[in-house]
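Hi V.,

Quick status before I head out on leave. The structure for the redesign project is tokenized and pasted below; the design run finished overnight.
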């Protein structure tokens, strides 16, 4: 299975226009997704550093601003 950099905890966006995508695990920045660059460098082998981001706990409940713990 091809790793999805957007769902990896090592992926980040840089401020460099020439190399806007980066990987903290491999220490690279590139124009393309880091997994593509890693595949090129590893003779066609997929990235082995992929680690999925933890899922966020999404609560759509509104906060009760009358609750004393907020004040």
């Amino acid at each position: 299975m091809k790793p999805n950099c957007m769902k990896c905890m090592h992926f980040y966006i840089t401020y460099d226009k020439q190399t806007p995508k980066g990987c903290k695990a491999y220490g690279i920045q590139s124009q393309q997704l880091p997994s593509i660059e890693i595949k090129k460098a590893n003779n066609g082998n997929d990235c082995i550093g992929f680690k999925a981001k933890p899922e966020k706990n999404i609560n759509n409940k509104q906060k009760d601003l009358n609750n004393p713990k907020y004040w």
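Above is the designed sequence. The chain has a mean pLDDT of 88.

G. will cover questions while I'm gone.

Best,
W.
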